[in-house]
Amino acid sequence: MRAILIILDSVGIGAAPDADEFHDAGASTLAHLARAAGALHLPILQSLGLGNIPALIPGGELIAGVPPAPRPLAGFGAMQPVSKGKDTTTGHWEIAGLDLQSGFYVFPKGPPSFPPELVRELEARTGRRLIGNKAASGTAIIDELGPVQIQHGVWIVYTSADSVLQIAAHEDVIPLKELYRACEIARELCDRYPIGRVIARPYLGRPGAFRRTENRRDFSYPPPEATLLDRLTESGTAVHAVGKIEDIFARRGITRAYHTGNNRDSQAKVIELMRGKVQGLIIANFIDFDMLYGHRRDAGGYARALEDTDGFLKLLLPLLQHNDLLILTADHGNDPTFMGTDHTREYVPLLAYQTGRPGRSLGIRRGFFDIAQTLATFFRIQPMLRGTAW
């Protein structure tokens, strides 16, 4: 048996009912980026039923260029987040069956953002001084402090509206191995709060022309209970993790990981695994939507990445065998037309496709964990603690 779960990082489809609690009322990633880009061309996603989803959402906005399909090929719906957070870890863990009602700790914007004892311990254990110590855009703070970091060999440490501590360093000044070790130390120190992720943010270039590299690594807080991935591997079902999935799940519940740093490489690996006829679950995160375009408020780039992904799906669908299950969804929103540069609290799209099976409305699902319950049923393992299979 084989299922393919693809998480389109940050591709939200309309403000969630509690969006105002997150200061995100009015956000709608897909509709707004399509309007800003002058419409989208997504023939495969349109045929699956992406354009049918907005009608299910109260006040849902149409996606320019992606009208409803008369006879959608996939089950289509929208999922409402229930966990107390709109970050990557929370979204992925909810998809895998968890409900984080306590949520992760978020550092204040600052400066300073980090407690003095955390700063002292991180500096002492890494042997390098810390600069930054505030909430900031990753590209902006590297532009601001990169010259100082290069000159003095210090760490640029910053946070955001998410539950993160991020450490940036020039790869020619501080080796990647040392950066990753510093993040492991920070991960240990941050567990007391707790923080969702510590992120290594290496970069290259010269002042005025810095660029972040694809050697990013995420160091996640371990899931507090068994996820779908844990349940599958314990039952003997293989889990193939593509992209940053291994980082998000703290390397738990994974048979084999294929760490990639962009959509192109992740999509190529999924195609390779499909052609290799691997069995079990293939779970992939496509990061570019969020990392390159959502946070940078680049609607045009976001649109092009979606259209490229539609081309990938055109190659993928013919590789599906009878009874294979393909699920497309997202972990949160990141409306590139919205204020600020952070994630947005949104419904996420749900498309579930099996060859030869007619599409139907899956409605509004309260909780991303309906995916975990559906996959538990699909693979015939014990039910998850929460969620309803469709």
* Biggest sheet character: 8 strands, mixed
CATH topology of the largest domain: Alkaline Phosphatase, subunit A
What spatial order of strands do you see in the largest sheet? Answer: 10-9-11-1-12-13-2-14
Terminal residue distance: 18 Å
Number of domains: 2
Q: Indicate the overall shape.
A: globular
Give the total of beta strands: 14
Order of helical and strand elements: EHHEHHEHEEHEEEHEHEHEHHEEEH
In terms of structural class, how would the helical and strand content be classed? alpha/beta
The CATH class assignment of the largest domain is Alpha Beta
How would you describe the overall organization of this protein?
The chain has helices at residues 29-37, 43-48, 88-95, 116-126, 138-152, 176-190, 228-234, 245-248, 263-275, 288-294, 299-316, 370-378, and strands at 2-8, 75-80, 130-135, 155-159, 164-170, 197-204, 211-212, 217-220, 239-242, 256-258, 280-286, 325-329, 348-353, 361-366. The strands form 2 sheets. Strands 10-9-11-1-12-13-2-14 form an 8-stranded mixed beta sheet, sandwiched between helices. Strands 3, 4, 5, 6, 7 and 8 form a 6-stranded mixed beta sheet that branches. It contains 12 helices and 14 strands. It has 2 domains: 2-100 and 224-378, Alkaline Phosphatase, subunit A (3-Layer(aba) Sandwich), CATH 3.40.720.10; 116-220, 2-Layer Sandwich (Alpha-Beta Plaits), CATH 3.30.70. It starts with a strand and ends in a 12-residue tail after the last helix. The mean pLDDT is 97. The chain is 31% helix and 19% strand. It is globular and about 60 Å long. Helix 4 runs antiparallel to helix 6 (176-190) and helix 9 packs parallel to helix 11. The protein is α/β, with parallel strands linked by helices and 390 residues long.
